[in-house]
Amino acid sequence: xxxxxxxxxxxxxxxxxxxxxxxxxxxxxxxxxxxxxxxxxxxxxxxxxxxxxxxxxxxxxxxxxxxxxxxxxxxxxxxxxxxxxxxxxxxxxxxxxxxxxxxxxxxxxxxxxxxxxxxxxxxxxxxxxxxxxxxxxxxxxxxxxxxxxxxxxxxxxxxxxxxxxxxxxxxxxxxxxxxxxxxxxxxxxxxxxxxxxxxxxxxxxxxxxxxxxxxxxxxxxxxxxxxxxxxxxxxxxxxxxxxxxxxxxxxxxxxxxxxxxxxxxxxxxxxxxxxxxxxxxxxxxxxxxxxxxxxxxxxxxxxxxxxxxxxxxxxxxxxxxxxxxxxxxxxxxxxxxxxxxxxxxxxxxxxxxxxxxxxxxxxxxxxxxxxxxxxxxxxxxxxxxxxxxxxxxxxxxxxxxxxxxxxxxxxxxxxxxxxxxxxxxxxxxxxxxxxxxxxxxxxxxxxxxxxxxxxxxxxxxxxxxxxxxxxxxxxxxxxxxxxxxxxxxxxxxxxxxxxxxxxxxxxxxxxxxxxxxxxxxxxxxxxxxxxxxx
Length: 534
Ligand code: HEM
What we know:
Radius of gyration: 24 Å
Mean pLDDT: 88
Main location: membrane
Organism: Neoarthrinium moseri
Bound molecules: protoporphyrin IX containing FE
Subcellular location: Membrane
């Protein structure tokens, strides 16, 4: 049954891809540009280009199911030089030297664009309820960067007690029906998605909306349905896209629910912004929605619908990566039990010596190191710092990136490279803490590539998980806080176990290494605790 379904699926994909190329005339003039990877190809006839292009696209089908492996093999053969990986829709040029990584991070978004990648990946025009994105970011202001990178980050201490309390409550609710042995069994990835959604809804939309079950359910469903629909749309001819998007998103059910709940709130807040007199007696709400409104253009203000579209587009970035990382983190806690005692001891000592009411997460170096090692080993995305070439682009070393192709950093392969990390396939939870201590003492560390101490939120060539340059993830300080508070809560209150330690933990789609929905974890409440008395 399964193989025949698979064969049928592959056949349908192949058919769709052929129809897409034929109907949309991809085999005409752009062929030459798209397949330009070497000077030799310049001398090819037009027909040879077409054949070469088609061969590359079909070769690229294996990228869909084995992307990280394809990249790791090519990385090993490239010896530090840029290399090219074919995908069904375009080529990816992967770079690994500090100079080229810096160049792509600093390139003008008019040439190498992250925003255009997101647009190609997510097809917002079809999947996000008709909301259209520009190809370049910054055309009408980059308020979201200030809203997240500056305003959200500067309010983290203010939010921390609430985030802590939401995580604690969610865990207790999720794990409230233990069996005879005291353990509750859960599917860890779906549970992490629900918890992260609850926390993020509170930060993003404020307390009132975060309490509405219909709204939080739509907030969770929305990114999943967009990703699912966008994947189907990538192989759908353009004239069918609206219908297919509507079918794949259940007639835009989640987006419509979000719009319906957000519309009155956003309208009211925008009206208050336009007329500050209306604000006089009430303080401004403290949440990302308010900051996104505050940082939107004053001249030619957006309509409420456009504003909601922008808020929802930013919301999209918040749930998926964070829940995947949190899932692998809890699984790693279960798989590497030897780290539990030192992590708990670090926490106990911190609580005992701190005069503050909340934990200072920056003062838990072992926890920071453990999380980094979990990310280094599992790494939910094989590439980072994706940029789509909006024009033909020649990198400093002469490497050509054809218009429409992407240039990226193969972060997963780099993190498994023995020339960068000692014993790269071994989970060594405190390697980063040891390396930092050594670097702080003025010594070199052979265990990591860094030349200076670094933490989870560092965004640089040796730690590109947040991207690089001005586009580096503006939500990383918030993400780090949430990840650390989740682990702290689990360490403090719960004992957890993976019943099937050797079972598969992930599945691959393109460059993503997604946690499996069916991985189960057992949780049992502990009696001895150091944080909030129960
Ligand atoms: C573990 C969790 C996360 C990871 C690994 C992650 C990683 C990334 C990466 C790799 C980029 C692209 C940067 C580049 O290519 O240079 C990015 C962009 C972005 N991230 Fe995150 N992110 C995470 C969580 C979050 C959260 C929680 C938020 C919001 C609070 C957020 C908001 C954004 C936004 C808005 C962008 C787009 C930036 C732009 O276009 O300039 N991310 N993130």
